[in-house]
Amino acid sequence: MANQYSKTKLQKFKKAIEQKMGSVSNEVDTIKEGLGPASNKQGGVTPDSIYSVHMADAGTDSHEQEKNFMLMNRGSDYYKNLEIALERIAEGTFGVCKICDDLIPEERMMEVPNATKCVGCKEKEKLGLT
Ligand SMILES: [Zn+2]
User: Fold this and answer.
1) 0.85 exceeded by the pTM?
2) Which residue, 14, 47, 69, 95, shows the most beta carbons closer than 10 Å to its own?
Protein backbone atom coordinates (compact mmCIF):
# COMPACT_ATOMS: atom_id res chain seq x y z
CA MET A 1 0.00 0.00 0.00
CA ALA A 2 1.51 3.27 -1.10
CA ASN A 3 1.86 6.22 1.22
CA GLN A 4 -0.99 8.63 1.15
CA TYR A 5 -2.46 11.41 3.23
CA SER A 6 -5.62 10.55 5.12
CA LYS A 7 -8.98 11.67 3.79
CA THR A 8 -9.27 14.22 6.60
CA LYS A 9 -5.88 15.70 5.76
CA LEU A 10 -6.71 15.80 2.07
CA GLN A 11 -9.96 17.59 2.86
CA LYS A 12 -7.94 20.16 4.78
CA PHE A 13 -5.53 20.64 1.87
CA LYS A 14 -8.42 20.92 -0.53
CA LYS A 15 -10.00 23.69 1.51
CA ALA A 16 -6.73 25.59 1.75
CA ILE A 17 -6.14 25.25 -1.99
CA GLU A 18 -9.65 26.39 -2.85
CA GLN A 19 -9.17 29.40 -0.60
CA LYS A 20 -5.93 30.23 -2.38
CA MET A 21 -7.66 29.87 -5.74
CA GLY A 22 -10.31 32.34 -4.60
CA SER A 23 -7.79 34.98 -3.60
CA VAL A 24 -5.66 34.45 -6.71
CA SER A 25 -8.63 34.90 -9.02
CA ASN A 26 -9.67 38.02 -7.12
CA GLU A 27 -6.19 39.39 -7.53
CA VAL A 28 -6.14 38.67 -11.25
CA ASP A 29 -9.54 40.33 -11.61
CA THR A 30 -8.32 43.43 -9.81
CA ILE A 31 -5.31 43.65 -12.09
CA LYS A 32 -7.51 43.16 -15.15
CA GLU A 33 -9.77 45.98 -14.01
CA GLY A 34 -6.73 48.16 -13.58
CA LEU A 35 -5.66 47.37 -17.12
CA GLY A 36 -9.04 48.22 -18.59
CA PRO A 37 -9.25 52.02 -18.26
CA ALA A 38 -5.57 52.47 -19.05
CA SER A 39 -5.86 50.68 -22.36
CA ASN A 40 -9.00 52.63 -23.29
CA LYS A 41 -7.14 55.85 -22.73
CA GLN A 42 -4.60 54.74 -25.30
CA GLY A 43 -7.35 53.82 -27.73
CA GLY A 44 -6.94 50.07 -27.55
CA VAL A 45 -3.86 48.01 -26.98
CA THR A 46 -2.07 47.29 -30.21
CA PRO A 47 1.65 46.64 -30.34
CA ASP A 48 1.98 49.99 -32.15
CA SER A 49 0.20 52.05 -29.54
CA ILE A 50 2.17 50.52 -26.69
CA TYR A 51 5.33 51.23 -28.59
CA SER A 52 4.50 54.86 -29.38
CA VAL A 53 3.37 55.67 -25.85
CA HIS A 54 6.51 54.06 -24.61
CA MET A 55 8.59 56.29 -26.83
CA ALA A 56 6.57 59.45 -26.20
CA ASP A 57 6.62 59.88 -22.44
CA ALA A 58 9.23 57.49 -21.13
CA GLY A 59 6.36 55.02 -20.78
CA THR A 60 5.24 55.38 -17.20
CA ASP A 61 1.80 54.04 -18.11
CA SER A 62 2.89 51.23 -20.36
CA HIS A 63 5.61 50.29 -17.96
CA GLU A 64 2.99 49.95 -15.28
CA GLN A 65 0.90 47.93 -17.70
CA GLU A 66 3.72 45.57 -18.51
CA LYS A 67 4.19 44.99 -14.84
CA ASN A 68 0.48 44.26 -14.43
CA PHE A 69 0.48 41.86 -17.35
CA MET A 70 3.38 40.07 -15.75
CA LEU A 71 1.57 39.83 -12.43
CA MET A 72 -1.56 38.64 -14.18
CA ASN A 73 0.33 35.90 -16.01
CA ARG A 74 2.04 34.84 -12.85
CA GLY A 75 -1.33 34.77 -11.11
CA SER A 76 -2.92 32.58 -13.73
CA ASP A 77 0.07 30.21 -13.78
CA TYR A 78 -0.28 29.84 -10.05
CA TYR A 79 -4.00 29.24 -10.45
CA LYS A 80 -3.32 26.45 -12.94
CA ASN A 81 -0.90 24.86 -10.50
CA LEU A 82 -3.58 24.92 -7.82
CA GLU A 83 -6.02 23.26 -10.20
CA ILE A 84 -3.47 20.54 -10.85
CA ALA A 85 -3.08 20.10 -7.09
CA LEU A 86 -6.84 19.58 -6.77
CA GLU A 87 -6.69 16.94 -9.49
CA ARG A 88 -3.95 15.18 -7.57
CA ILE A 89 -6.12 15.16 -4.49
CA ALA A 90 -8.90 13.55 -6.52
CA GLU A 91 -6.47 11.00 -7.95
CA GLY A 92 -4.90 10.28 -4.58
CA THR A 93 -1.39 11.19 -5.70
CA PHE A 94 -1.32 14.47 -3.76
CA GLY A 95 1.57 14.85 -1.36
CA VAL A 96 3.36 11.70 -2.46
CA CYS A 97 6.87 12.02 -3.86
CA LYS A 98 6.82 10.54 -7.34
CA ILE A 99 10.43 9.47 -7.02
CA CYS A 100 10.76 7.82 -3.62
CA ASP A 101 7.03 7.36 -2.82
CA ASP A 102 7.45 9.03 0.55
CA LEU A 103 4.97 11.52 1.92
CA ILE A 104 5.97 15.11 1.32
CA PRO A 105 5.74 17.04 4.63
CA GLU A 106 2.46 18.80 5.26
CA GLU A 107 3.96 22.28 5.60
CA ARG A 108 5.65 21.94 2.22
CA MET A 109 2.40 20.87 0.59
CA MET A 110 0.67 23.88 2.14
CA GLU A 111 3.32 26.16 0.76
CA VAL A 112 3.71 24.47 -2.63
CA PRO A 113 0.49 22.52 -3.24
CA ASN A 114 1.62 21.35 -6.66
CA ALA A 115 4.90 19.85 -5.43
CA THR A 116 5.41 16.32 -6.70
CA LYS A 117 8.77 15.60 -5.14
CA CYS A 118 10.08 15.69 -1.61
CA VAL A 119 12.85 18.12 -0.76
CA GLY A 120 15.46 15.34 -0.70
CA CYS A 121 14.63 14.12 -4.20
CA LYS A 122 14.40 17.63 -5.51
CA GLU A 123 17.84 18.45 -4.19
CA LYS A 124 19.29 15.28 -5.69
CA GLU A 125 17.71 16.14 -8.99
CA LYS A 126 19.24 19.61 -8.87
CA LEU A 127 22.65 18.06 -8.33
CA GLY A 128 22.04 15.67 -11.20
CA LEU A 129 22.10 12.55 -9.04
CA THR A 130 18.84 11.05 -10.19
ZN1 LIG B 1 11.38 11.74 -2.60
Assistant:
1) no
2) 95
- Could you tell me if 86 and 60 are in contact, meaning their C-beta atoms sit under 8 angstroms apart? no
First to last CA, the chain: 24
Digit-by-digit pLDDT tens for the chain (130 residues) are 468 999 999 999 999 999 999 999 999 999 988 877 655 554 445 555 555 544 555 556 788 889 999 999 999 999 999 999 999 999 999 999 999 999 999 999 999 999 999 999 999 999 998 6
Q: How far is the CA of 125 from the centre of ligand 1 (A)?
A: 10
How many whole angstroms from 118 Cα to the centroid of ligand 1? 4
Of 83, 104, 71, 64, the C-alpha closest to 22 is 83
CB-based contact 100:118 (threshold 8 Å): yes
H-type alpha helices, the chain:
7-41, 47-56, 60-91, 106-111, 119-126
Q: How far is the CA of 21 from the centre of ligand 1 (A)?
A: 26
CA of 100 to the centre of ligand 1 (A): 4
